[in-house]
Every structure is written in structure tokens, then in C-alpha cells.
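Hi support team,

I submitted a single chain yesterday and got back a structure, but I'm not sure I'm reading the C-alpha cell output correctly. Could someone confirm the output below corresponds to the sequence I sent? I've pasted both exactly as they appear in my results page.

Thanks,
R.
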Amino acid sequence: MSQTTSATPWRRRSLIAAVGASLAPPSMAQGAWPQRPVRIFVGFPAGGTTDLLARLAAQILQEGLGQSFIVENRPGAGSNIAAQAVLRSPADGYTLLLGSPGTNAINPHLYSNAGYDPLTDFLPIGQIAEVPNLIAAHPGLGVRDAAGLIALAKQRRLSYGETSIGGSTHLAAELFRLMAGIEATHVPYRGSAPMMVDLLPGRIDFGTDNLPTILTHVRSGALVGIGVTSTERWPTANDIPAIAETLPGYEVTAWFGLVAPRGTPPEVIARANQTLRDGLEKPQATARMFELGARPLPGPPEVYQARNVAEFARLGDLIRRVGIRAE
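Hi R., thanks for writing in. Yes, this is the structure output for that exact sequence:
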């Protein structure tokens, strides 16, 4: 009897602790997120703009949260493979997706079955950066800006290339063509390198690519920068006019951010967002962004989602008007 009586306080405390732990929210019962490495899936191969921005975000989160953030490249189907893999993962904050225009706004309009709805299946964490595209022409055309290219295209049929069917480079070229009121021969490519094989020697007349990729050729004089696809001139290429200076209202950029599967705890979203914002606002992050031809976009999840919703509608309408299909 005395043994039972003496053990009762210990057992009572253990029971209370166990019940308390079972009733506590995950962040209280298991410690604040993250308690183990976090994976960030990227739908493109290593080395490209999307991949580099994902690695910069991973570095910011790792330094701010003291846990490993590992980038995993899952290329294929315009990022659908990566998006579907994240969607199938537990909504616990340990598997995230590097969102791009393809995953967030384009693919559901482009593919007959993308396998997800970006506006309802994922929760926005926060934007990382924005990158414009650049329309560049072969010097042999003798044009220096958008007005000159449009005038020439109305005199004779030109050919143009882009680096990804249905991607932001393709949509940038198509919107330029539609707003300029010109017809041109579309030559699709799978990536920057194949397009450059034809653009640099002048086998096609002009092409569209992400600014950081194609700007090197403009700086060398191998190509002529016709215009950036942002609404205004870009800070790292301020000598190149914006297409919108000739075609008001024109804009097709690439914006990137982190998203998580629907059902991810709100405290995880909040902590990841604040850490990402704090890191993006540091001077070294801004400097690194400019090196990549990007600009940081720190902000709350609501701002990111508002952009996703707006671009989902706008780019979807453009895809339908042009009649682009990936399958």
C-alpha cells in the first residue's frame, strides 16, 4: 500500500504530461518548426534561374532557422512533376515547392490535366524575386528597339524563337506579336542553348529569353537588346528600353516564391515567411539578386497569392487567345 501511495504522485505527473503533450498543437508538442531538414522541390534542372533562386532562398532559411534546407531538382512536364510530388507529401512544412509562373498560373491552362489547382492545392509562403525576359534581335536586321522591329515585321515576315512552349518567354513573344499587330513565324526550342545556336548566326530573326541568360550576348554585341518585358526599365539593364515604352500595358515577367501543400500549419507558413522576408531585405541578398538579374520581392503571403490569382486569369486568357497547348 505504501509503495502504491509513494508512486502515485510520479505516475500522476507522468499522466498529466502525456495528456498535455497529446493535446498540445504540433509546434508545442514537438518544438518549433523545423526540427529536421526541409526539402524544396524545383521543377527545372540545376543551374537555371529557378534553381539558383531556390538555392538562395534555401540559404536564407537555413541561416535564419538553423536547419538544413535541401534543394531537389525534379524537372519535367513544365514543373508539373515537382508540383505533384509536393502535393502528395505530408502537409507538415518539410516539403516545399519553388513556385514559378508555370506552376502558379500557366500549367493548368496549358495541360489537359496538370494534376493540381495552384490556387487551392497550395498555400503561399512568400515571393522571392522577379525576373524579366528580354527580346533580342540579330544585328543583321538593322533595328535597335521595339518600334524598329515592329516596323520591319510589317514589311516582311520575320521568325522568332523562345525557350519553353507555354512558358513566360513564349508568352512574352506572343503578347508582343499580338499587341504589335504583326505576324511572324514561331520557332520553338527546348531551352536557351538550342535557341542561341540559331539566333546568334541569324537563322532566326529575334528571340525571347530570361534577362540573365540572354543579356550576356547583348553585352558582347552578338545580339541587340530590343526591350525588357517588365513595365519599366530593369535596374541591371537600364540602357535597354522596356517594351511597354512602345506598347503601353505590355508586361510578361517571371516571378518566383515558395508554396506549401494545403493543410500546412499556419505557424509554419508564418515563420517561413518572416524568415524569408528578413533575409531578402539584407543588402547581401539584394546584391546577389542583382547578380542574377533579379530583384527581391519580400512580402506577406497575401501579396503573393494576389499576384498568383491575377496572373492565373491574365495569362490563361492569353494562352486561350493564342491557342497554345503542351499536349
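A quick pointer for reading it: Residues 1-29 have pLDDT under 50 and may be disordered. Let us know if anything else looks off.

Best,
Support desk
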